[in-house]
Amino acid sequence: MRAADIQDDLTDILVTEEEIHAKLEELAAQVATDYSGKDLLLVGVLKGAVMVMADFSRRLPMNASMDWMAVSSYGASTKSSGVVQIRKDLDTDLHGKHVLIVEDIIDSGLTLSWLLENFESRGAESIEVLALLRKPEAAKVQIDCKYVGFDIPNEFVVGYGLDYAESYRNLRDVAVLAPHVYS
Ligand code: IMP
Ligand code: MG
């Protein structure tokens, strides 16, 4: 669905599908140059990164392996605690691999900071991060993210894989959720 299909649930459209695709095309060219001749493993973080992974990886003009990880932040409330639980681990041995973590969004940065540390202990040759979205004002820890699609304001967004209570992932655009939806 497009933002126009659910207008009442959204306030601003921050990034359209067309803008996302153009940006992923750019990032894919950049990644292919940077990893030329290397054994690249793309690691997607479920479930939010499914759309980014699908669209980015198909634009990548080089071969790459793909694996998935599912994690959840546990602790009180909706806020990321930084304590992460692995729900589904990788199937791949990271030894000697050049890993590119593919993420939907960097909010506090706590999840990624934990993931980066975890991956480093598994003997990867290199580890970098690609995130479609980043909220600079929400950062609690600084993440060294080599490939960023768009910096956005500190608001709760949905679409293009991002959900509110498992809903809105199939929205093609990225938009701010209207406050009345929360209540
Ligand atoms: P962090 O640990 O705070 O960086 O949180 C990262 C995860 O929280 C992301 O991978 C998303 O799954 C989720 N998240 C953060 N911000 C949003 C948002 O605005 N909308 C939907 N999900 C979000
Ligand atoms: Mg995520």
Automatic annotation (TrEMBL):
Pathway in which this enzyme or protein is active: Purine metabolism; GMP biosynthesis via salvage pathway; GMP from guanine: step 1/1; Purine metabolism; IMP biosynthesis via salvage pathway; IMP from hypoxanthine: step 1/1
GO molecular function terms noted in the UniProt entry: glycosyltransferase activity
Keywords: Cytoplasm, Glycosyltransferase, Magnesium, Metal-binding, Nucleotide-binding, Purine salvage, Transferase
Protein name: Hypoxanthine phosphoribosyltransferase
Cofactor needs: Mg(2+)
Species assigned in the record: Microbacterium commune
Domain Phosphoribosyltransferase: 18-164
Record family assignment: Belongs to the purine/pyrimidine phosphoribosyltransferase family.
Enzyme Commission number, as recorded: 2.4.2.8
Swiss-Prot/TrEMBL catalytic activity: GMP + diphosphate = guanine + 5-phospho-alpha-D-ribose 1-diphosphate; IMP + diphosphate = hypoxanthine + 5-phospho-alpha-D-ribose 1-diphosphate
Gene that this polypeptide is encoded by: hpt
Compartments reported by the entry: Cytoplasm
Presence of the UniProt keyword Transmembrane in the record: no
